[in-house]
Amino acid sequence: MDVTPILESLNEAQRQAVTAPAEPLLVIAGAGSGKTRVLTHRAAWLIDVQGLAPESLLAVTFTNKAAAEMRGRIESLLGTPASHLWIGTFHGLAHRLLRRHWRETGLPQNFQIIDSDDQLRLIKRLMKGIGLDDSQWIPREVQYFINAQKDEGLRAKHLDDDGDNNRRQMITLYQSYQELCDRGGLVDFAELLLRAHELLRDNANILAHYQRRFQHLLVDEFQDTNAIQYAWLRLLAGTEGVPFVVGDDDQSIYRWRGARVEHIFQFQKDFPGTSVIKLEQNYRSTATILKAANALIENNSSRMGKNLWTDDEEGEPIRVYSAYNERDEADFIVGRLRDWSEQGNPRADAAVLYRSNAQSRVLEEALMNAGLPYRVYGGLRFFERAEVKDALAYLRLTSHRDDDSSFERVVNKPTRGIGARTLEIMRTHARANACSMWQAASAVINDGLSGRAATAVVAFMSLIERMTRETDGMELHDRVDHVVQLSGLIDHFRKEKGERGETRIENLEELVSAARGYARDPAEEMSELDAFLAHAALEAGEGQADAWEDCVQLMTMHSAKGLEYPLVFLSGLEDGLFPHQRSVADPHGLEEERRLCYVGITRAKRTLYITHAEQRRLHGMDSFAQPSRFLAEIPTELVEEVRPRVQVSRPVRPSSRSSRGSGSMSPAAEIGVRLGQRVRHGKFGDGVILNCEGQGAHARVEVNFETAGTKWLVLGYANLDLM
Ligand code: ATP
Ligand code: MG
Question: Which one of 1, 12, 400, 416 is most buried, counting C-beta atoms within 10 A?
Fold first, then answer.
């Protein structure tokens, strides 16, 4: 057999991992050292050389995108489709198990997945129902509590209040929330994992079946598994299964979601005889980029310590741009992207990364103005948009009347005269009778509601019945289209002024196309509509530009994990934003932020830009910030500062005679200030103007503040009182 395609282009250590005997193996290695490549080649090796059937492998990756890519690569190595190979995210795979074994899990066959917005809405409703004051009990904290318990594998009944009233309340809320979900057949993301774990744990036959089936378990990004994922993996592996896990302790960035890097150590205890392989050569980045990443991560104290090297060229310096504000930053990035694209490079080879989702808005605006197509991963996803979720809620109700979160979402959207009071009556009834909102509605229309309210509720219920009847037997996309038409959403959004309403209508149309293009996995045992709805909830679109369109990639640093791009921008490197304000005071938090920065830097193959802004308006608030401390941790010899390209006037010193006595106005006079002039600033106090540069919107001054030191400020934003 010719094993060349699988083994060529692997170094010695990689080859050793790929061809390792059937025993537990841990590959621990830095960014870009070929971990994912090793995993992919291992799968191909097992199938092609060891002769294993594709169905005896289970491969877990971190995102749906990564899973799709991995499948593609394995298939191209094998030269045949591997349709029976189970490959996906932990959530995706857990979902698949629950669908197959819904009977044993206690879920209804057409259970629905709810995302974190839906979850929050349910929790709010629940809290309101029992009269909890939401200034004292913050719904998001309750949500966090519930998910954190689930991630640890704990049900409410497992928890002890330790005599603490607050905790007792949280546990009660967890319990009631779960009852609400169970009643409606609703499954949140954390529940997918927990239920799938319980399914295997409590059903010896099912467990034995999958243990026999999955002889090899391959896991990428192992450092970011949480307790329940790890427990799931252990169960499936049993005593016979062969786990093959790859990870990097320096890239553990989901501690806040329950991930535990300690599993790397635990693994070696739980699977005695584990071999450990280290990969040390980086194949992704230039030497400069790699040196910067290594220097940064050295500042972390809790590390396993790795020695990552490359024989790639030094490459370009890392370019740092200090922007005046977030718009200047976005313009700069877009300018560089335009050059990149005009030089004939694919736009999809460029990625703009940011710490916080909200940063994307200004970037998107600048890209849109420049006519550069882009795609946002994470955040503003297609299936998460309000109007799309409205339409999906109608669809869900047609197949599943007891879905309370959908019921609440659209019962009065578009408005049909069902007010807060009517809803409250239905909720009270639902609570008292432990039934769904739909059942409550059926009950109170005859007894409890006023004539008008009852008519409105009946109209809504008949609409859902009509949708169900008329779409029965239709093709999926016709079905979606028909429900959208009947829902009245299009007319509703048409009334919304301007582009916004139009975009919403376009998105509804796009949903019909999404349904048309949707191909169900024939192995899934559920109706096409349910499969599509699950797909919508799980995949959440992952981007909005068409897949074939060549576009710039926008994403948070978190969602960039595992990916690589020739050109990368890290934006918003300011203290308070990155590292995030929440984590600067906590050493563990700060180290996690630094790992995130390490992830960001190591996404770049050839060219890396880092930008920060002196002032930033985010969430409607202006802030002044120092450059991120992470910037100072990158050796200066690797960095080149970029000055604004259009510099209207050069800086002048008070002592300079450059413009004095000449006929033209001094730069200071042009922007209406005097060097040496005293000024007052709302936050920094009193100071003296030392210097100025730029014109118009870019005009800025350097002020020596008495207590705050020297700062450059944009005149248009700084609100300086000139004295
Ligand atoms: P990350 O930690 O970011 O997930 P990784 O360790 O998974 O990175 P890969 O994505 O597998 O690394 O590999 C990084 C890049 O190096 C890829 O472009 C890959 O194709 C390339 N690469 C890996 N090993 C080799 C090799 N032996 N020869 C040539 N290129 C390689
Ligand atoms: Mg990888």
Answer: 400
